[in-house]
Structures are given as C-alpha cells and as structure tokens.
Design brief:
The chain is mainly alpha-helical. It contains 15 helices and two strands. It has a two-stranded antiparallel ribbon. The mean pLDDT is 85.
Length: 330
C-alpha cells in the first residue's frame, strides 16, 4: 500500500481495502482506484453535512477522522447528491460514475454483511449508471501481417516475438512485461500471470513457438540484471510496460496506424477479434484465453460481429432505394 493510503485512510476504510486486495484478490490498481473514489465521497459528505467550512479546498479535506457514527448517518439521498456533484462539478463520465457507485455499494455491503457494523446497506438500491459500450478498435488481418512484416533492426527477433504473442494470444501489455523465461513450457504452453494475480495457461501455436525459438537464440544472457525475465531491454533489464508500448508504437507508426488511436491493447483486441470472427472460437473459450473474469466482458466481440453485419447490409447499394410512388399518390 502507498504511504498516502496509510496516512490518510481511517481504519474503517483501510479494512475494506485490505479485504479487496487479500480476499477478493483485486489488483493494486483497482484497490487504489476504490480508495480514491471513497476519499472523494467522504470529502463530499463532510462538505455536504457542514462538517468543514464551505470555503474549504475540496482537495485538502481530510478523511482520516471518518467514523462509524458518521457512516451510519449516510442515506441513499446523500449518494444521489454525490452523483449529482460529480456530474456537475467534476464532469465525471458514465464509466467513472459507475465505478464510484460500485465502490460505494461494495463498501457499505462490506460493513453490513461482513463486518455487521451497520443494520442495513443504505445504498443497496443505488442505481449504477450504464457505461457506454464502444466497440473495440482492432487491426484487420492484412494490417496485422503488415505490422509483423515491418519489424526490423537489432532487436527484430525480440520485437517480432512480442508482436506475435500479442496478435496470437491476446496478452495485456502488463502480462507481456511480466513474462518469465520459465513461463514458456516444453509442451508449447505459456503461463500468464494476469489481473489480480490470477494465473492462466494458453497454448502456443506454430507462429508463436517459432518466434520464441528464434528469439531464444539471440536473447542476452551475460550481464542481464533480471535473469528470470523473458524479454530483455537494450539496458539488459526486464522490458517495462512503457518500453514495450514504445516499441509497438514505433512499428504501428511505420505502417501508418499510430495516429489512428492504435495501441498495445488494440493488438489484444485484434487477437480476440480474429480468433472469434475468423477462427470460430467459442466465446467461453475466448474468455479463458483472454483471462476475463466475466463472460460479459468477452461478449463485446459478439456485439462487434453484429455491428459489422449491420454495416454490411447498410453498405448494400440498394439499402437506400424506396418504392416508387404510384400515379396520383401524395
């Protein structure tokens, strides 16, 4: 946990965050986001209930004195006032508001059902805003091949291997950076440590096996600071997320895609889209390959397919033709 977390959060909030991290196995990033959401909420509550002067700088309102007695006074109306505040004063979009709702509902549910500190969850009926679902951006098969063909330079075997794994296995960039040499197994499978420290195993196809074998031939050994790391930087360190992102951007720009909003995560979308739409992979299998916790997250690729079918019919040159009016018809 960060120093600010330990310094600023009261014990009654810390306990929930520890629960998220240790029992629910949420990632550090998720726990930190929930903490910031709860901090914003209790800052608002103190201002809203007149516990600090109205002219107080919102960002300087302390929450280390939040008590169970204050928590017991909170109602669902307070929560809706808070939602109104973050829309009007902080311009929070639906995704950010939805996360804050989840953080609040989860926290009060924890106090009610796990700790038995309150008689009910006052925010149980709090409606979570629907997040706008945008279709994922991805490379076409031809663009994917162009990207692979663009790889060159002194680290071409390493870079080609990374991009091949992105496009074939759909790894997150953090998962790519975290790969160890020992994660590549002799049975042509690969162990991946995903979000929330959840492990999964994916099978490596021929392209991945060949790319890994070619990289192994030139992978640095002498002077490597992290000998466990699979992908080594020019400084003989484990490649960081930023280093991998910069490498991918370089090749995307080379084929004219960098300015169009493509990224490492778009390569993950590409792998998923190609597997589902052209490879015919079952959506439940795809969920496990990608390491999604919920099937609903994976189902965006089925929505993508539906949207493509709609565009296909809309692009038919006959799509705008209307019946000819008969003589005398208004």
């Amino acid at each position: 946990m960060s120093n600010s977390f330990n310094d600023e959060a009261p014990q009654i909030i810390k306990k929930y965050l520890y629960y998220l991290q240790t029992v629910k196995e949420k990632s550090q990033k998720t726990v930190d986001e929930y903490y910031l959401d709860l901090r914003t909420f209790f800052r608002f509550i103190k201002l809203h209930k007149g516990l600090v002067p109205k002219e107080t700088d919102f960002g300087k309102i302390k929450i280390d004195d939040v008590t169970l007695e204050l928590i017991k006074t909170i109602t669902i109306n307070d929560a809706y006032e808070f939602m109104n505040y973050i829309i009007r004063e902080r311009n929070n979009k639906s995704a950010s508001r939805a996360r804050k709702c989840s953080a609040l509902k989860g926290y009060f549910n924890f106090l009610y059902k796990k700790e038995h500190l309150i008689d009910n969850n006052p925010l149980d009926e709090l409606d979570i805003p629907k997040k706008k679902k945008s279709l994922p951006k991805y490379l076409t098969l031809e663009q994917s091949i162009d990207l692979l063909n663009a790889v060159d330079g002194p680290n071409k075997e390493r870079d080609y291997c990374i991009i091949t794994l992105f496009l074939n296995c759909g790894l997150r960039v953090s998962e790519m950076a975290g790969l160890n040499f020992s994660d590549i197994r002799t049975d042509n499978t690969m162990r991946i440590l995903g979000k929330g420290n959840k492990e999964r195993v994916v099978y490596l196809n021929e392209a991945c096996v060949n790319a890994i074998n070619e990289y192994k031939k030139v992978r640095p050994v002498d002077g490597v600071k992290d000998k466990n790391a699979l992908f080594i930087s020019r400084n003989h360190q484990r490649m960081s997320v930023k280093t991998i992102q910069a490498m991918v951007y370089k090749y995307l720009e080379k084929i004219g895609l960098n300015a169009q909003g493509y990224s490492c995560h778009k390569l993950r979308h590409t792998a998923a889209t190609l597997m589902y739409q052209q490879g015919g992979v079952d959506i439940r299998v795809l969920k496990d390959v990608l390491g999604h916790e919920n099937l609903g997250t994976t189902e965006i690729y089925t929505h993508l397919s539906s949207e493509q079918m709609k565009k296909a019919t809309d692009s038919n040159p006959l799509s705008g033709v209307k019946p000819k009016k008969t003589y005398g018809e208004e």
